[in-house]
Structures are given as structure tokens and as C-alpha cells.
Inverse folding.
């Protein structure tokens, strides 16, 4: 059976193709349109998925959408009516898209991809939860989805046993941890639904005690682990901004403008927010464990991208294992929707052998054609020579664009569309932020280590499901790690870890090993192959554009190594 999952029209549109329960292809629309967080109908992502499998839209048995538009429309209409006349502008600006697109999915499918078959819908949080549980190795688990908002629910809890997901309790709009975090993201001068991770990184520079009491006022908790926002401080209705004037009064500072210098007080606000989030989620997890006594947790929803929070779950709760999918947010919901429908037809949970490398790949012949057009000097190297040349360049503090195999699923670069550098010199972080990524100087970079070396360099729990394989957990470095990989150590002594096993990505693993043999430190600095404001590169053309527009020293695509000048190729 061929199932196409779709998510779109809020943020991070994507498509996923399942054939007989096997995930064949999946990608976000942004990778093809080059518009970061593109939320439009994923025409290009769908077309690519079908092309990869050699199918047409007529071959699809079912399209599954990641939420129920009628229910969401009902919620939005109630908001507009309750807020009238303040909501008049938002209503007139958005109502057309509902009647032209969002309530007309079948018509859009026919127009965009020629599909005229059956369509079904799952609830927003069902898609999130399915994206976690059905990819996990668990036969039972506690379920928690934490998001901005779906139809009405912002938080959903449940229980899974075998193939069956049972949703238990929910917290409804406007009470939302995702919206709370986005509100403060906006207050701090960053873009909503895009820059929450910047606030998470900024929090490490602040003191959470400074605004601790204020955030207790902003969001309150109940004895059962639930929470409620104090709506005095929020304005989700009119749409012009998410916070009310009372927020500035409470924090005793005006909202930061996006080009304003980053003051210490803003870092303190970020720290207070992060601490409050962690305490609320920890309290909720305590209640869930006490209720079900199952030590396995499946976590999903946009809040599950908060890797600082994720890294503390095992330490701070009674759960002994946690699974988070590579894309727990709305982008990953197309996969969850498809998996949810597939399992509704099955007698048991499918044994899905999952790899995040689900996007496009390009043969050497196609890569070489692009290199010829570029006019760059390049060489084709054997595998052994490539590893030796690149590891030597990294040792010599060169920055390498690394483009290999199938593109990763999710927002993290996992070694196939990465920028790599040596972690040995602390100045490397500043260099890449300034000359390559063109982004804020406080932003950290991720360390990538082989799975067998984790305990040497990190204080991390030994668990069956490893969120760090997909760069979804932050852990403290050991003293040895701080000493040997300073470019990847955040100001608070932590790192957003990525681990790699040889069987999951042999070339990436062997490059880390080769660098370790030359330096004694088998760790690399890994960041996504893009610049600020752009999606991760998808095609060789994208990689060449990024390479030529930055101070990346060397580009490796497939078997080819290119430079920006005619300097002799070491080891070639």
C-alpha cells in the first residue's frame, strides 16, 4: 500500500511516502523552494517523493493530512468573534486562504499533483505522537506531545501498547508552552516559529534567578502537572504581537528590537524562560510516570526540539528511556500522519528500521557536471585518499563543506549536508559564526563523536534510544571533552551532541576516525550546510552557491573535492 503524508499551511511543510509500511522518501518543502520554513503546499516535496519511487500520483492509495482543518477553522472563527473588532484585520487577511486552500485539500491535490483519490485526516497531536512512537523501538510507552497549537490542543498525553495509541488528556489553547516560548522569542527581538533555538542558546549566558518570580507569574502550574498561562501578559488574538504591554511592565524593560545590541538582561530573560519550561515539563513528566509506571517516554511536538530540556529528562525524572524523532515538529508531522494511518490498518506495530537519510541524493556524474559548469578546480579521489585529504585539511584548521548521499530528514544536519571543522581551537567558533554562517556570535556549534566515545567526552545517560544520534539532546562535557574540543563547548560547559555509528553512516564515521588518528581527538565540529536565513542545502547547485558565498575553504561532494583556487591538492 502506498501512503502519502502531508503537512503544510502553518509552518514547515513536508511530504512523506510510505510503501507497505516502509518509509521510502521524505523531505521538507523548504529544501526545494529555498524558502526557510516554507509552509506552502509541498508540491515540490511530493513530486520528488513520487519521482524517487518511480510513481505517479495515480499510484497513491491514500493521502493523509496532519490535522483536521474543519476543527481548526472552528477554533479560529471563535477567536475572531471573541476578539472583534480587534481581530478584523487578521480576519480579512487570512479568511481567503481558508476557502481557497485550507478547506479545499482535495481540489489543491488535484490541481498541484493530479491526485484524485481518497484523503483522510488525523488530529494534529496524533500525527506528532505517531511520528515518535511508531519510529521508536518500544512495545509500550508513555506519550507526550508539546507544541504551539494544533486544532485546539497545545499539549497531549497518552499511552501506547503494541500498535494502539490511546490519547488520555489534553491542555487547550490559549495555554501553550510552545506559544509561551514563541512569545518571549518575539519579545527578545527574534522571529517566531524560526528562532526559538536562539533563545535556548542565549539562555546559557543569563542568570535564571533574575526573572524567576516573574515567570512564575506568567505561567502557573497545578498539582496534576498541568499548567496555565496568565493571559494578562499575552495577546494571541489580534496577531500584531504575541505579548501584551503588561509583559514589558512585568519584566521592567522594553521589548528588544531585532537590530538592538544583545544586553545581559535579555540573556537573563531567556534563562528565566528556559528554567521555567524545564520545571513545568519535569513536573508534568513526574505526574505521567506516577500515573502509568512505564519508564519509556515518547516525546514529540515542536517543544521537543528544545535539546537542553531533552538532555535533562533522564536525570530529572523516573523515565529510563526517551525517544524523540529526528523532526518532532510540524515538519515531521507528515511522517506521523502516514504512520498513524498505516498502523490503523495493521494488527501489530510494524518493525520499522529507520534511517534519517530520506532525501535526495546525486550520483558522481551529476555532481561532476555541476563542478565543470562552476569552473572550480576539482579532483576525484578514492575513498581512502578522500578521507586522508579531508582529515588533514581539518587538522590544519580548514573549514569543509561536506555533501554526501541522501539528505537528512529534519532540521539538523547529520553528516550528509554539513559544514565540518576542527574542534581543537576555541577560536574556530568565532571564525565560523562570522565568516561562514553570518550569524550571532553567541550561537554554539555541535560536536559529533563516535558512539563508542560518548562516555569519554560527555556526561550522558546510557539509554537504548539515543536522541543524540539526531542532535536532539544537550549534555555536559567531561573535563577531557572541555579540554580537547573547546570550539564545541558552550558557555555553560555543555554541547548539543551528535553521535554516529559506523553502520548508520560509514563515511562520516570513518572521517571522524581519520581525524582522531591524526590529532588524538576523534571529535568534529558539525553545523548545517547553509548560511543564516537559508535552508540546509539540498542539491549540488545549492552546495556550490553556499560554498562560493562564504569563507568555506574546501567543498567535498561525493567523490569530488573542490577548492576556490588552484592550490595543489594535498594527497590527491
Amino acid at each position: 500500500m502506498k501512503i502519502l503524508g502531508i503537512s503544510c499551511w502553518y509552518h514547515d511543510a513536508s511530504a512523506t511516502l510510505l510503501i507497505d509500511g516502509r518509509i521510502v522518501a521524505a523531505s521538507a518543502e523548504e529544501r526545494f523552494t529555498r524558502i526557510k520554513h516554507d509552509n506552502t503546499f509541498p508540491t515540490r516535496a511530493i513530486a520528488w517523493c513520487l519521482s524517487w519511487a518511480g510513481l505517479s500520483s495515480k499510484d497513491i492509495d491514500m493521502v493523509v493530512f496532519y490535522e483536521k482543518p474543519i476543527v481548526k477553522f472552528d477554533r479560529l472563527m471563535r477567536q475572531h468573534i471573541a476578539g472583534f473588532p480587534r481581530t478584523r484585520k487578521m480576519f480579512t487577511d487570512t479568511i481567503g486562504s481558508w476557502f481557497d486552500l485550507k478547506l479545499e485539500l482535495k481540489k489543491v491535490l488535484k490541481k498541484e499533483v493530479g491526485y484524485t483519490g481518497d484523503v483522510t485526516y488525523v488530529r494534529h497531536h496524533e500525527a506528532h505522537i505517531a511520528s515518535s512512537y511508531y519510529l521508536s523501538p518500544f512495545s509500550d510507552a508513555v506519550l507526550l506531545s508539546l507544541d504551539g497549537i494544533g486544532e485546539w490542543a497545545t499539549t497531549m498525553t497518552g499511552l501506547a501498547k503494541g500498535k494502539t495509541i490511546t490519547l488520555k488528556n489534553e491542555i487547550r489553547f490559549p495555554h501553550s508552552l510552545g506559544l509561551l516560548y514563541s512569545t518571549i522569542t518575539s519579545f527578545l527581538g527574534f522571529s517566531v516559529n524560526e528562532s526559538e533555538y536562539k533563545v535556548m542558546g542565549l539562555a546559557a549566558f543569563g542568570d535564571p534567578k533574575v526573572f524567576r518570580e516573574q515567570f512564575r507569574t506568567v505561567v502557573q502550574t497545578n498539582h496534576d502537572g498541568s499548567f496555565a498561562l496568565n493571559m494578562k501578559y499575552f495577546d494571541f488574538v489580534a496577531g500584531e504581537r504575541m505579548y501584551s504591554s503588561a509583559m514589558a511592565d512585568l519584566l521592567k524593560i522594553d521589548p528588544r528590537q531585532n537590530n538592538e545590541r544583545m544586553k545581559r538582561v535579555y540573556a537573563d530573560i531567556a534563562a528565566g524562560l528556559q528554567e521555567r519550561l524545564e520545571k513545568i515539563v519535569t513536573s508534568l513528566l513526574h505526574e505521567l510516570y506516577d500515573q502509568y509506571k512505564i519508564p519509556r517516554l515518547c516525546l514529540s511536538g515542536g517543544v521537543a526540539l528544545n535539546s537542553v530540556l531533552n538532555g535533562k529528562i533522564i536525570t530529572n525524572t523516573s523515565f529510563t528511556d526517551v525517544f524523540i524523532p529526528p523532526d518532532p515538529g510540524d515538519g515531521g508531522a507528515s511522517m506521523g500522519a502516514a504512520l498513524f494511518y498505516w498502523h490503523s490498518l495493521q494488527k501489530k506495530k510494524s518493525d520499522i528500521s529507520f534511517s534519517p537519510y530520506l532525501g535526495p541524493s546525486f550520483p558522481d556524474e551529476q555532481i561532476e557536471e555541476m563542478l565543470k559548469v562552476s569552473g572550480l578546480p576539482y579532483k576525484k579521489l578514492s575513498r581512502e585518499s578522500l578521507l586522508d585529504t579531508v582529515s588533514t585539511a581539518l587538522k590544519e584548521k580548514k573549514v569543509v563543506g561536506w555533501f554526501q548521499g541522501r539528505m537528512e530528514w529534519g532540521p539538523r544536519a547529520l553528516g550528509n549536508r554539513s559544514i565540518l571543522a576542527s574542534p581543537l581551537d576555541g577560536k574556530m567558533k568565532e571564525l565560523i559564526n562570522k565568516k561562514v554562517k553570518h550569524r550571532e556570535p553567541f550561537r554554539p556549534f555541535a560536536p559529533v563523536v563516535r558512539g563508542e566515545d560518548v562516555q569519554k567526552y560527555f556526561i550522558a545517560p546510557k539509554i537504548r534510544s539515543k536522541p543524540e544520534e539526531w542532535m536532539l539532546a544537550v549534555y555536559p562535557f567531561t573535563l577531557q571533552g572541555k579540554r580537547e574540543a573547546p570550539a564545541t563547548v558552550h558557555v555553560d560547559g555543555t554541547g548539543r551532541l551528535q553521535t554516529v555509528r559506523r553502520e548508520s553512516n560509514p563515511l562520516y564515521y570513518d572521517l571522524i576516525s581519520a581525524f582522531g588518528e591524526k590529532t588524538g581527538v576523534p571529535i568534529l565540529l558539525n553545523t548545517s550546510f547553509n548560511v543564516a536565513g537559508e535552508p540546509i542545502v539540498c542539491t549540488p547547485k545549492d552546495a556550490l552557491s553556499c560554498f562560493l558565498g562564504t569563507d568555506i575553504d574546501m567543498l567535498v561532494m561525493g567523490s569530488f573535492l573542490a577548492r576556490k583556487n588552484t592550490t595543489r591538492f594535498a594527497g590527491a
User: Anything to note?
Assistant: The longest helix spans residues 264-292.
